[in-house]
Predict the 3D structure of the following.
Amino acid sequence: MSVWDSMVGQDNAVDLLKRVVASQDQARDDMTQSWLFCGPPGSGRSNLAKAFAAALISPDHGLGDEPTSQTRQVLAGSHPDVTYLATERVTIGIKEVRRLIMASEQMPSTAPWRVIVIEDVDRMMERTTNVLLKEIEEPAEHTVWILCAPSAQDVLPTIRSRTRIVSLAVPTDKAVADFLQTSMGTERHLAARAARLAQGHIGVAKLYASDPQVLKERDDLVVGLLDMHRASQAILLGVRMADQAQEQAKRYAEKQVAADEADFRRINGLKPGDPVPRQILGAYHELIGKDELRRRTIRRSRDVLDRDLNTIASVYRDVCVIQNGAEAQVGLVNLENRAAITELSVRLSRQGAIERIRQIGVARRRIEGNGSQLLDLEAMMCDLLV
């Protein structure tokens, strides 16, 4: 299977990158070395970056029916000439970027290129981005930089203007459903429903298709929103959202920390339960200590709430669709709740539906700004009352 086959609904971007990889054999000097991959959350921009890195590194340009050893290493994150920077923290630190710059100056050990991939470059503070600027403008002749962000507008103009931008599309529901069926063996009806509810977000679609509890919590949130008529109900729904976000985030963070600990012990030749030598104890605590668990939980809880806010916004999106008679053209996201959403569309004015979508955006920004999640959610739910 080609390294590109895992990309869902991104034919134009894939065709472009295939041509770029093929043309480097004839005109290496013309190769663009600074890239910015832009796409909404879940569109697969990080996966596309890995596929591009694998195609640049592998002798078969990632087109073979069977993956080469180089391709497998790149996709596993273990190739010595491909460096990834992904963070579970709120922002990417300046020390991390400086380490990348040092790596970018080194000659590749086995491959034609040294490839540096930065996921979520929009999480960099301006001071950190300025450290990266010179390397993006004048990369080492053997280095390719691939930056990923939700949109070009999320990146400082100084970086944006020095990169070649590749924009990803939102995958269609059919493309996502087909992917779930072929890659995960998901039953057809569940795959179609998960794709519709995820609204083009591949990661969320996979989550809905594989985790019945998360899917149930989404259904309960929509029902709770549509049944919400009093301030007490709004506050209780906000509390439930905050509690479930913390529970999901903690489960995820603990799972990731356990996996990192297992990798750390394997790399350092330690068996489970073996004491960690004092010489590497600092690195051990930095990787899986309480502070790291807390940071990951905070980051993940924001991701869970972001997904919940998208769910709530989808209800008012469906209201707007019904109010404007556009259901036949664009369909409903929350098809199972059509009757209740139709009733809400009668009680709400068109301006009222749009105003509630705006209020959800305000709550999202407040949560991202390190406000009190619980207070922000309670205030938003009260504002949504009809």
